[in-house]
Structures are given as C-alpha cells and as structure tokens.
Amino acid sequence: MPRFLAACMRQPVDTTPVWFMRQAGRSLPEYRALRERHGILDICRTPELAAEATLQPVRRLGVDAAILFSDIVVPLAPMGVDLEIVPGVGPVIQSPVRARRDVDAIKPLIPDEGVPYVLEAVRGLAATAGVPVIGFGGAPFTLASYLVEGGPSKNHSRTKAFMYAEPASWHRLMERLGESVLAYLRAQVAAGAAAVQLFDSWVGELSSEDFRSYVLPWVGRIFDGLADLDVPRIYFGVGTGELLADMAEAGPDVVGVDWRVPLDEAHRRTGPRVALQGNLDPALCLAPWEVVEPRATAILAGAPTTGHIFNLGHGVLPETDPGILRRLVELVHMRGAEDGRG
C-alpha cells in the first residue's frame, strides 16, 4: 500500500508521506506557462489540461500524492449557479442566495452529466500518476458561504445571518449541497481517486455550538455516505483549532490541521481514532531554508508516531520557491525514515 494511504489509515509506513495543498498552481513556472494560454475554468474543464496541472508538482517535487487540479466551485455551474472565477478575487456568484426560492432553484448535481470532464481527468490520472490521486470537494458550509455572500468574504456575516434567521432554508441549502458533494466525491472514487478531501475553508468562523447545530449533521452524512468505499476521507478547515474535536466526530479518517495548533495538542483534541495532516505555516516557505528546516523538523517531532501526513497548514503561496518545497519533501522523507515512523 502506498505510504500516503497507509498513513491515512494509521498503518505502518516506511517514512512520513508528504504532499502540499495547492501544490499545483502559481508557484510553478510550468503552471504559469499553462495559464498564459488557458483560463482556470478552461483548465478545470479540459481533462488533458487538468491532468497536466495535477502532475506538474508530482514530477517536480516528488510528493506522495497528487490532488486533482480543480476548484471547489466547479460543480456549482451544472447545479444552475452562474459564476466566474475573477483573477485576484476568486469565485464570484452572479445571483447570490438570499431566500428559500434561491435555495430551491439550485439543482442536484448528477456527476456523469454535470462534470464528466472531472471524472475523465481522474480516470486518466489514476492510470498514469504513479502516486495515489486525491479527489476533493467543497464542504457544504464553505460552498454555502460563497453562494450567500456572492464571493469571498472576510467575516461571512451574510452567511451567518441567513443561517440564524432562516434555519429551515439554511438546512435545505445544506442538504442540497451535501447530497451533491457526496455524489461528486463518490463519482471521483468510482473514477479512480484513492482518497478524498473535503475542504471547509471558512468553517473556522463558527463556534463549536453553531458547528454542531448547523454543519455537523451534513458533514457527517457525507462521510457516512463514503464509508462503504474503503478510501481515506480527509476533512480540512482553516482556523478550526477550537473545532478539531467536533470535526473528528464528523467521521473522517484524517483531520487536517492548520498552523495555529501544534500537532501534539491537535492529537489530544481529536483523539487516537483519526490521523492528522499538517501543519507548517505556508508563509514559512518564503523564508530561507535555514529557517524552514528546524520548524519542519519540530513539526515531525511533535506529530503522532503513527498516522501523520506532512502538509502545510493551508495552501502553497504563489510566491513560494518550488526549490524549498522540494527540499521539504526530501527532509520529511529522510527524517521520517530515521525516526522509524510507522
């Protein structure tokens, strides 16, 4: 079994596996060359281009997994959402959700019909990548936030106001999104994805009480709905230190940890049932290697002895030198082998 998958399931490994969120993208010169000719959504919707972008960091960095190049909002368009990805801004929704009628207008996702290009890309990658392919989707809360806010938000105030003021409409929105995300992830696994990650980028804005009331039931349904597929299920959010125990309760096999909580403390909060993924601050990768090395070594020293996947605490920053990432991969592999992780 590849070391990435073994670590996800808390099984013995020969060394610590490593991959990076946003490992494909603007930090790589070959990706920037690709972007000079193609828009982001064009790449996401063209299997050959999505596969090429996915494989670029595998070739350059030597990581232990390839995460599909796509965007969490890609499934929203076939669900009837008018959106575009604006450079320097992110996803922009033309008609934000403001009432129950807007929720009811969102169509369920039928993956084979709505996103066949994603599934074709996964099939090709599964046959050629040489490392496990990670499929992914956006978690219901984070997708709902984009839909309600109309785009990225600093405080997600419209989202939370809708959640508090219109609880029935909110739960209907979460149900519609949760069912569609589950179908999307199951289709990626059927196409060959060896693991799946649920990105809940904005859920750290919530208290534990609100998470448990407004989010946990729907995330739990997604992970329960994937249980029969026998693939690792990863749950990741930003600023979620106070939610780690609740996130583990949702049923993932792996909880991603950002850089704000040390891994030994994260392990105490989540308990021994889940593996941990993380958690170097992405900004550290902009520093000289003599700064990066001891911080990465300290993370390895504080990680669980079994069930740890080295990653950043969020995505690779565009200014990052790929050479630093390559040295990180080599360091993690070397130190993991020396420490006898397994």
Compile the SSE list and pairings:
Blueprint: H1 3-8, H2 29-35, H3 40-44, H4 47-61, E1 66-67, E2 83-86, E3 90-93, H5 100-104, H6 111-114, H7 116-128, E4 133-138, H8 140-149, H9 157-165, H10 167-191, E5 195-200, H11 208-214, H12 216-226, E6 233-237, H13 244-249, E7 254-256, H14 263-270, E8 275-280, H15 289-302, E9 308-312, H16 322-339
Parallel strand pairs: 1-4, 4-5, 5-6, 6-7, 7-8, 8-9
Antiparallel strand pairs: 2-3
Features of the shown structure:
single chain; 342 residues; alpha/beta; TIM Barrel; 9 strands; 12% strand
Structural write-up:
The protein is an alpha/beta fold. It has one domain (about 40-50, about 70-125, about 130-305): TIM Barrel. About 50% of the residues lie in helices and about 10% in strands. The protein has helices at about 5-10, 30-35, 40-45, 45-60, 100-105, 110-115, 115-130, 140-150, 155-165, 165-190, 210-215, 215-225, 245-250, 265-270, 290-300, 320-340, and strands spanning about 65, 85, 90-95, 135-140, 195-200, 235, 255, 275-280, 310. The protein has a seven-stranded parallel sheet with strand order 1-4-5-6-7-8-9. Strands 2-3 form a two-stranded antiparallel sheet. The two termini are about 15 Å apart. The model has no long low-confidence stretch (mean pLDDT about 95).
